[in-house]
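Incident log, structure service

09:12 report received: a user says their structure output differs between two submissions of the same chain.
09:20 pulled the input from the user's history:
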Amino acid sequence: MRSLKNIPAWLRNKYLITGIGFIIWMLFIDRNDLPTQWKRVKELKTLQQSEKNMDKQISDTKQELELLKTNPSTLEKYAREKYMMKRDNEDIYIISTAKQ
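09:34 re-ran on a clean worker, output below:
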């Protein structure tokens, strides 16, 4: 049987061992460990960027709606482009440039 004299004093300190165990537990084993926190921060940044993009898209849509409400020529242009509407004496040709 080994004696405790061969073990260094800092390894015999129960407070140090408990503290190291606690730190290891909190950093790697706990439900809120470091890798999980890093994933959450990354997801938060992605969601914040998505929120900025949505806010920009909402403001663009509001601006377009305001133009459609106030400008008849914009309304006609929108109807022709989006819904393929035409006047009675017109023919419409659609040219597709899809890549294969």
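09:41 both user submissions now match this output. Likely a transient worker issue. Closing.
09:42 reviewer note: The helical segments are 9-12, 14-29, 34-70, 72-83. The mean pLDDT is 86.
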